Amino acid sequence: MAVVLVRECGRRRRVEWERALLREIIEALPGGFVAWDADDRLVMHDAEFVRAYNLSTDTIRPGARFEDVIRAGVRAGQYVDAVDHEDFVRKKIEDHRLGGQVFERRMPDGSWLLVSEKRMAGGGIVGVRTDITALKRVEAALAAAIARAEHLARHDPLTGLPNRAAFDVALASACAAPGTSALLCIDLDGFKAVNDRLGHAAGDAVLRQAADRLRDVAASAMVARLGGDEFAVVVSEASDPTQSEFMAECLVRTLQRPYRFGESCITDVGASIGLAFDVGQGPEALARAADDALYVAKQAGRRTWRKSEQRNWLAARVDSSHRISDEIKRSVRS
Fold first, then answer.
1. SS3 of 263, please?
2. What residues make up the domain containing 66?
3. 83 shares its domain with 176
4. pTM
5. Distance (Å, rounded) from C-alpha 124 to C-alpha 91?
6. 201-231, pLDDT tens digit by residue?
7. What is the pLDDT of residues 95-149, one digit of tens each?
8. Is 37 a catalytic residue?
9. How many C-beta atoms surround the C-beta of residue 245 within 10 A?
């Protein structure tokens, strides 16, 4: 009998030691640990799990049903994505019963957890919550850096306007779309003299103010800085030519208003503008036509705008078709 008692005491000490070791291992895990039995009742958890779900601590105890823990957390605001409470609880229960989940969860305090769950052979579920807040911050910083790099690749750092690369894409897109598009090529008159006389800081101030004025007048169009004192405006919907012509007139007027530089007032800067319309000749031909019109504006004394007199491509094609048709008819009659 004594031998049996000794053996039983030894077995109990062994079980207690194993339980203590298991608890020590669980507490040492780098994250929140939780285990549910086959009936979705809480079997064990560690302190980190309670800290992670600090708004649900009243229900996190052995024997608690998974559904009760979730409902208590929803009521306490533990789950920031629980918009429709009943739908959220139903979905959580369904997902939990499937087992084998791995997903990210944003917590009320802004931290992030990686939730990993796995079903055991006996039907229960073991879950681990790992704090990935630092990783999410790195991801956010990386995404922001990529966004900044992409922005800089397509925008002028001085004025914030789209650059030539973005302009090329916008012009090609406008020309490929149905309907008529328009292009305004703009040069600032007197800009070089400002740079030479007052320095590059003054020139930069003029460029930034000119960009702001372009944005205001051409708010419905795409405004770009091509380089130096060259700007462009792409009008995608230019079915009414008078609107683009009115825009050109407004731009000439607004760009010759005085520019501020510190306490100084720069009054000898204006703009020459070339306007051209696209009806099918393509972006390169449209750019050449607008640039030719800009040259005519400069030859006319600057601080003015001119419209391209180039016969549009579509009209030329129609005339050519008519001539061919007439020649065929004459050949048939003869």
1. coil
2. 30-154
3. no
4. 0.65
5. 19
6. 999 999 999 999 999 999 999 999 999 999 9
7. 888 878 899 999 999 999 999 999 988 889 999 999 999 999 999 999 999 999 9
8. no
9. 17
